[in-house]
Each structure stands twice: as structure tokens, then as C-alpha cells.
């Protein structure tokens, strides 16, 4: 009986509470890195990038309970563009990723380059 109690106590200490997610939590006009331990309810690290033509870039990194990745195209000159990136590993929001999806960027380059080369000279 004593062995069973000792085993249960050892497992309880070894398992312990689940480790909290760690994210960079900061707000800046450039890439910022400030590691923080998130609340227990937080399951995602986010990086929100807003590009405003008149005021420049704003990078907002945080811990959140839920996250939906987004990418918004610039609609008008004063409207700006933005994106939300989500990840679920410790300090995974350290690097800034391009706001444009890679597939769209590759397609634009693939279609644009031949058009430039084949277009009549002006």
C-alpha cells in the first residue's frame, strides 16, 4: 500500500500543472520581442500587422484564446492593409512573416515576369 501511495505522489509531482504557453507580447512600429508567459486559457500566439499609408506599420503581438489567420488587401489609399498570423508553440511569434500569402506572391511573379518580357517596348 505504501508503494502505491509513493507512486501516486511521484506521478502527481512529475505531471504537475500543464506548462503555460509563452509568446512575445508587445506593440511596436517594427518587429518587437518581449517573451511573456500567457494565461492558462491562451492557446495561440498572434502577430497582427497593420500597414497604414500615413502612419506606417504597427506590429501587435499577443496571447489569445482563439485565432483566425487573416490577410486583408489594401482597399483604398487611407484604408491600409493588414494580416493576423497564428501559431501554437512557445515564442513562435518572434519572426514577422510576409503579409501576402506565398501562393499569391508566386503567382503574381509567374504571370508578371513574362508579361514584362513579352510586352512591346514603349
TrEMBL record:
SMART domains: LU
The entry's keywords: Cell membrane, Glycoprotein, GPI-anchor, Lipoprotein, Membrane, Signal
Alphabetical list of Gene3D superfamilies matching this protein: CD59
Lineage top rank: taxon: Eukaryota
Biological process according to GO: lymphocyte differentiation
Compartments, as annotated in UniProt: Cell membrane
Main subcellular localisation: membrane
UPAR/Ly6 domain span: 21-106
Protein's membrane topology: Lipid-anchor; GPI-anchor
InterPro entries: CD59_antigen_CS (IPR018363), LY6_UPA_recep-like (IPR016054), Ly6D (IPR042339), Snake_toxin-like_sf (IPR045860), Toxin/TOLIP (IPR035076)
Signal peptide bounds: 1-20
One of the record's GO cellular component terms: cell surface
Protein name listed in UniProt: Lymphocyte antigen 6 family member D
Organism: Saimiri boliviensis boliviensis
Amino acid at each position: 500500500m505504501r508503494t502505491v501511495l509513493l507512486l501516486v505522489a511521484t506521478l502527481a509531482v512529475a505531471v504537475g500543472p500543464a506548462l503555460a504557453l509563452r509568446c512575445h507580447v508587445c506593440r511596436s512600429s517594427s518587429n518587437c520581442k518581449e517573451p511573456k508567459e500567457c494565461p492558462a486559457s491562451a492557446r495561440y500566439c498572434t502577430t497582427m500587422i497593420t500597414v497604414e499609408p500615413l502612419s506606417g506599420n504597427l506590429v501587435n503581438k499577443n496571447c489569445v484564446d482563439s485565432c483566425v489567420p487573416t490577410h486583408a488587401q489594401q482597399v483604398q489609399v487611407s484604408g491600409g492593409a493588414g494580416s493576423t498570423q497564428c501559431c501554437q508553440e512557445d515564442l513562435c511569434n518572434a519572426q514577422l512573416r510576409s503579409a501576402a500569402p506565398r501562393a499569391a506572391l508566386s503567382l503574381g511573379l509567374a504571370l508578371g515576369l513574362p508579361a514584362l518580357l513579352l510586352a512591346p517596348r514603349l
